[in-house]
Amino acid sequence: MASKPASEARALPRKRRNSIWPFPRGHVASPMASMVDLERFRATPLTREPFEFLIVPEFVRADARSAIHNDYPEVDRPGSFPLGEVSYGSAFSKLIEEMRSSEFRTAVEEKFGVDLTNRPDMITVRGRCSEKDGKIHTDSETKIITILIYMNAGWESSGGRLRLLRSGNNLDDMILEVPPTEGTLLAFRRSNNSWHGHKPFSGPRRVIQFNWVTSEAVVRREQNRHRFSAWMKKIRGALSGEKKAA
Questions:
Q1: Total structural domains in the chain?
Q2: CA dihedral (23, 153, 58, 144) positive or negative
Q3: Domain carrying residue 73
Q4: 3-state class (DSSP) for residue 128
Q5: 124 assigned to some structural domain
Q6: What percentage of residues in the chain have a pLDDT greater than 90?
Q7: Where does residue 46 fall: left (phi above 0), alpha (psi -120 to 50 degrees), or beta otherwise?
Q8: What ranges make up the beta strands (E) of the chain?
Q9: CB neighbour class for 67 (10 Å; exposed up to 12, middle 13-18, buried from 19)
């Protein structure tokens, strides 16, 4: 196949592949109009029982969502992917910048009464969900705070709606259910009873997963785990396609 002219090849890429974190931790977000509503976050009360959490609809501002949607990482298979493994555009990059800013970290520290100084953060993204996703869990002990930001324009399915639970063995024993609609933030402090999961769903489901964790070693280990898990899902998908073709 003939290669494209150099001028055309340069004009095509809009999203980029990131091999390193796009911004240093504790980076101060640019003074441009913010994509997120920190005042709404600060004003939302923290629920303390049976574990600490809060839900902030409209956390991502309405006028920023279209650009973020267009620049969201191109993830075409289930699994969680570290930022360095995906491609995305400038609007999504700015959202990540704001999430990794010292201002956002301070707001989270004040809300949960936790010191995140020198605690590394870890970000992964999802673009698709499989029927096997959503099993009940609490998150690993190495995670301190979990933040989920959903970026789905609408949600009609009864599956894929995250449920915060009172127990670890009953998906219907729920505190509440969170539709993964565009701009919604869910934040919780990880504990031994921070149970959550969702009913099965297969299809597009965009969510940014942001955690402060206990050490850099956790970041490296978790990113390697996510890479391996995503690779295995890709292999299983390919094998399943071969069987169907046969």
A1: 1
A2: negative
A3: 34-238
A4: strand
A5: yes
A6: 70
A7: beta
A8: 16-17, 53-56, 81-82, 87-88, 121-129, 143-150, 162-165, 174-178, 185-189, 196-197, 203-213
A9: middle
Q: pLDDT tens digits for 32-67?
A: 589 999 999 999 999 999 999 999 999 999 999 999
Q: Are 152 and 206 in contact (CB under 8 A)?
A: yes
CB neighbourhood size of 68 (10 A): 25
89 falls within a domain? yes
Query: Tell me, what CATH number does 138's domain have?
Result: 2.60.120.620
In angstroms, rounded to a whole number, what is the distance separating the alpha carbons of residues 87 and 73? Answer: 5
The reply to whether 1 falls in a domain is: no
Full-model pTM: 0.79
- In our burial notation (b when 16+ CB lie closer than 10 A, e otherwise), range 115-150 reads ebeebbbbbbbbbbbbeebbebebbeebbbbbbbbb
Q: End-to-end CA distance of the chain, in Å?
A: 29
Tokens of 1: 């196949």
Separation CA 37–CA 51 (nearest Å): 24
Helix, strand, coil fractions of the chain, as percent rounded to 5: 30, 25, 45
Closest CA to 121 of 101, 141, 103: 101
166 assigned to some structural domain: yes
Length of the chain: 246
